[in-house]
Amino acid sequence: MSNTQQHPNAVQLNHTVVHARDRGLSAQFLAVILGLEVGAPFGPFLPVDLGNGVTLDYYAMTDAPIQPQHYAFLVPDERFDGMIARLEAVGVTYYADPHHTEPDQINRLFGGRGAYFADPDGHNMEIMTRPYARP
Predict the structure, then answer these.
(1) 127: which strand partners?
(2) Using alpha carbons only, what angle is made at residue 80 by residues 79 and 84, rounded to the nearest 5 degrees?
(3) What is d(CA 109, CA 18) in angstroms, rounded to the nearest whole number?
(4) Which are the contacts of 15, defined by CB distance < 8 A and separation ≥ 6?
(5) Mean pLDDT over residues 41-63, rounded?
(6) Is the torsion defined by CA of 58, 51, 72, 124 positive or negative?
(7) Which are the contacts of 22, defined by CB distance < 8 A and separation ≥ 6?
(8) I want to staple 115 with a disulfide (CB 3.0 to 4.6 A). Which of 16, 29, 31, 94 is the partner?
(9) What's the confidence (pLDDT) of residue 9?
(10) How far apart are the first and last CA of the chain?
(11) How far apart are CA 102 and CA 119, in angstroms?
(12) pLDDT confidence of 112, banded at 50, 70, 90?
């Protein structure tokens, strides 16, 4: 049963646009790190399906500066080490903190593991195995 069937009034994120200088490069980068695939182009967008009904739709923006955003991904614990290994394999530094001051370290927030890294356009990506405990 889908979440909207369980909660018919639920509002869910369906997709968001991610600005990139080179949509193919940026979409492929994230897909490789997360162990996902880039979908077929949809108009000016190149989607990365996150597997929970949400896509990141990469859009080439070449006529204005890219404003870096933060994207956080809740990932299965058993896939976390592979993601870190892929970051290392492509020479991308990961950090324990969102300000990128603790290189080559992970955090252990909320009983899980997490790390931050920059994508080719400077977006601050986060992988975490436990959601944040909110008050």
Answers:
(1) 73, 115
(2) 120
(3) 26
(4) 47, 54, 55, 56, 57
(5) 96
(6) negative
(7) 60, 120
(8) 94
(9) 82
(10) 28
(11) 17
(12) very high
Q: What is the DSSP letter of 6?
A: H
pTM over 0.85: yes
Residue 25 three-state SS: helix
Strands 114-118 and 70-74: unpaired
Enter the tokens of residue 29.
Answer: 């980068």
d(CA 20, CA 27): 9
Q: What's the token pair of residue 53?
A: 């009904």
Residues 6+ apart with CB under 8 A from 99: none
pLDDT on residue 93: 98
Residue 17: DSSP 8-state: E
User: In the block, which residue shows the tokens 């400077």?
Assistant: 122
Residue 80 has pLDDT above 70, yes or no: yes
Does the pLDDT at position 78 exceed 60? yes
Q: State pLDDT tens for residues 82-98.
A: 999 999 999 999 999 99
